[in-house]
Design brief:
Length: about 650
């Protein structure tokens, strides 16, 4: 059997089909050490200190003897010999195994391109990143190996960029340059190598401009967010406070997030458009590589990940990818568009999205400006998300309770709203100023008010109070304004509701749930056409539509007298009974009394005291015609 020792990322022994084989991890570290040092043997005493430290040597040697016994037993089971032993030394067997260990310079290929390919293949992951050994000898050795790899990569790249590159070498040189930049973003020599590597197709000038702006991009991310003319709070002070708090939070982040730009999903046969889109992705990569706030997976690796849809999640985890920028070409030839969206992993939360129309924009001429827009917008959302995450993780116990509460909050039933509130209040007992939990508690109260349909003003007052507290704690997060807008809506203050939702959408312009709530408010504002546009945008961003989205779309269509379309949306809901009143009114307006009365009976079973006029006095509508239309349907249905 042929074996492969993998040392980059998690150390593992693999078979010929790359399946992991059980073998003592410390034994694999011994093999890696011997291979990297071009040595055939090492003394038992040295290895005992290497693996268990300098403290109690007798105890370390005892641990080593136990390890040797386990290794011999396992090798016997595998009928293979990787290590051999005598009284004083451990020897590397000349057995049937290969490895990804990068040899010393003397044993590297003479061909520079092969050299670069070998180094790049290994350095896509960090050497022994997940090794559990933490002795000083081991950590010092691992660090020296990583430095050796980078020195070899830099030397090989410097040689390669001076030579005429073949077509096949260009992509490899770019990827290697990005890997080097990711490891040494401050090094001036690395900057020069990166500039030379990308000195093709105008990429050099673009990269120079980005380097010139690099410091400003991170510190002024909030400046790209447009101010809301109807904001109830001054926009500029809120942003400056947010940046100040984020600067402080940034110091608590122990790792720089990693981003993968997946190649465009090609839903069009237009080859020219595909080429332009691919070139645009390269421009975007250039932009991201100049930011210190992100590490970017090089294009070659991103392309390989993009092609392996069956195990993408595993690859994202293996390569420690935190964010993915997805791109997709779609539409007919005469109305082609490029859709881009930034996704946070592992929760698949969409942070930002934009669509660029090929017909309205000359993408070929304007791709540098579009690239800049994408880089600025996506980097801003990553910055915001990372700072928020740091705030979340400051108190792990509170964060855990918050996540549990969120699971209940996503399911629109009364018991789930109350379970969510219990978990979220537990989070607040751990951290009283935990803004996301405050805004989520507000949401449980407004949803309970809606589900019970009893007009309990205390529920809405509680929602308003918690939302206001969330804003006071974090006025740079959208959720507090979002929940204040919802509470104000049901309290009858529709103008204030619209203002609060406008602020929320300004702060998170691509947050699907915020857009959906804004759409719902616009329905009550008696602007159903605009509401439909917004809810459709939210549905595009969050294509597995939650019931609340479908309910809002149904309400907007009812206001437009599109009763059959209203029913079509309700039919798509996982729990259509949530919208029984609206469905009954729609069936009645279409003249289907049997269907309407069946739904009336179902509503009466859960809420026997439901009264149309009392309910309509509680549910706000900006225009009287809107309220009259709903009353007409409910009365015809038999309420």
């Amino acid at each position: 059997m042929k074996f492969l020792l993998r040392t980059f990322g998690e150390i593992a022994l693999l078979d010929s089909e790359e399946r992991q084989i059980a073998f003592p991890k410390k034994a694999l570290l011994i093999i890696a050490y011997l291979l990297a040092s071009d040595s055939k043997s090492v003394s038992r005493t040295s290895m005992a200190r290497f693996l268990w430290g300098e403290g109690d040597l007798a105890n370390s040697l005892t641990n080593l003897r136990k390890l040797v016994s386990r290794i011999k037993s396992r090798q016997s089971e595998l009928n293979a010999e990787l290590l051999t032993f005598d009284d004083t030394d451990i020897h590397l067997a000349s057995g049937p195994f290969a490895s990804d260990v990068i040899p010393t310079r003397a044993h590297m290929p003479k061909n520079q391109a092969k050299n670069l390919a070998l180094l790049t293949e290994g350095l896509r992951s960090r050497f022994l990143e997940r090794a559990s050994c933490q002795t000083k000898a081991f950590v010092d050795w691992r660090d020296s190996e990583r430095k050796r790899h980078l020195v070899m990569l830099k030397e090989t790249l410097e040689a390669m960029v001076k030579l005429p590159a073949t077509t096949g070498d260009v992509a490899l040189i770019k990827e290697a340059a990005l890997l080097l930049f990711e490891a040494e973003p401050q090094d001036e020599a690395t900057h020069r190598i990166l500039l030379k590597a990308f000195d093709v197709e105008g990429g050099l000038e673009q990269l120079k401009r980005i380097f010139a702006r690099r410091k400003d991009l991170v510190s002024s991310w909030a400046a790209i967010l447009p101010a809301s003319p109807r904001s109830p709070t001054p926009a500029a002070p809120a942003r400056s406070a947010a940046v100040s708090e984020q600067d402080a939070a940034a110091r608590t982040i122990l790792r720089i997030p990693r981003l993968a730009l997946l190649p465009p999903g090609n839903d069009t046969p237009d080859g020219a458009a595909t080429m332009i889109a691919a070139s645009l992705i390269e421009d975007i990569t250039l932009g991201f590589c100049a930011l210190h706030s992100l590490r970017v997976i090089a294009p070659y690796s991103a392309i390989q990940i993009g092609r392996r849809s069956d195990d993408q999640a595993a690859l994202f985890e293996r390569y420690a990818i935190n964010y993915v920028l997805e791109t997709r070409l779609s539409g007919p030839d005469d109305d082609l568009s490029l859709f881009t969206q930034l996704v946070s992993l592992p929760g698949n939360e969409i942070l930002w999205a934009e669509r660029f129309n090929f017909g309205k924009l000359d993408l070929a001429r304007n791709k540098h400006e579009i690239s800049r827009q994408i880089v600025l917008s996506a980097a801003a959302e990553v910055e915001r998300h990372e700072m928020t995450r740091a705030h979340f993780e400051h108190n792990p116990a509170a964060y855990h309770q918050y996540l549990v509460g969120q699971q209940y909050l996503h399911r629109l039933t009364l018991p789930n709203m109350r379970r969510a509130r219990k978990e979220l209040k537990a989070a607040l007992r751990e951290s009283a100023d935990f803004a996301p939990a405050l805004s989520s508690v507000a949401r449980t109260y407004s949803k309970e008010w809606l589900l019970t349909a009893r007009g309990d003003a205390e529920l809405l007052k509680s929602a308003e109070d918690f939302a206001t507290q969330a804003i006071a704690v974090r006025n740079d997060l959208a959720d507090g304004y979002r929940e204040l807008g919802v509470a104000k809506l049901f309290l009858g203050s529709i103008d204030e509701s619209v203002e609060a939702l406008e602020v929320a959408e300004t702060l998170s312009p691509h947050h699907a749930d915020v857009i959906a709530d804004h759409a719902d408010t616009l329905v009550h504002f008696s602007r159903p056409g605009l509401a439909l546009e917004k809810i459709q945008h939210a549905m595009d961003l969050n294509p597995i539509n939650p019931d609340s989205y479908l309910w809002t779309a149904a309400g907007a269509n009812y206001a437009l007298s599109q009763f059959q379309t209203t029913l079509d949306y309700i039919a798509q809901m996982a729990d259509p009974s949530l919208a029984d009143r609206l469905a009954a009114a729609s069936w009645a307006m279409l003249g289907h009394q049997d269907e309407a009365r069946m739904l009336v009976r179902r509503v009466r079973e859960t809420n026997p005291d439901f009264d149309v006029d009392r309910w309509l006095s509680l549910v706000p509508s900006k225009e009287q015609w809107h309220k009259d239309l709903y009353r007409e349907g409910l009365k015809k249905a038999g309420f």
